[in-house]
Amino acid sequence: MGTKGTATRSRLIEGARELLEAHGYAGTGLNQVLAASGAPRGSLYFHFPGGKDELVTAALETAGADVGAALAGLADDAPDAVALVQRMIDLFTTRMVESDFTKGCPIAAAAVDVAATNDRVHEVCTRVYSSWQRELAARFTVFGRAPEAADAQAWSALSLIEGAILLARATRSRAPLDRARASVALLLKDD
């Protein structure tokens, strides 16, 4: 694939990603993706012969990798697990506030839409969330937690973050994220 083809594919993925985050799977149509990306219809089926699901999975995998990279970057200079999770919440809070509550977690809206209806997209969402959990657990072990405790606390922290994002978006308020940030120390306290 040439440079132009790669750029077109990237535009399609980025357009889908933006729409998925704001509107979920059901609210993201291929015509909207074409309009957002500026790509011709023929390019969509050239780059994604499997149609919407293939494009959506590529968009979610890209978004998941970006958040995973951000998580790794935040972890590199975090002094402890509490600070790491608080920085993650700050990252999502900034995204949400700057988008007037149309964005937050790039996976959540699609994940909720397809949980019981689309196995292919559901598997991608599950894989992305699991990768974030593993990254958190790995970092928690660096901060001195036993692997089993790190694994459990990573799921708890991810659940706290995703729940706060959902509530913040539903209420169009950053208050749930601020409360989640304040409770991280209690959630992750050493026993």
From TrEMBL:
DNA-binding region: 29-48
Pfam families: TetR_C_13_2, TetR_N
Residues spanning the signal sequence: none
Keywords carried by this UniProt record: DNA-binding, Transcription, Transcription regulation
Gene3D superfamilies according to UniProt: Tetracycline Repressor, domain 2
InterPro entries in UniProt: Homeodomain-like_sf, HTH_TetR, Tet_transcr_reg_TetR-rel_C_sf, YxaF_TetR_C
UniProt superkingdom: Bacteria
All residue ranges annotated as the HTH tetR-type domain in the record: 6-66
Recorded GO MF terms: DNA binding
Coiled-coil regions listed: none
Descriptive protein name: TetR/AcrR family transcriptional repressor of lmrAB and yxaGH operons
Organism listed in the record: Nocardiopsis aegyptia
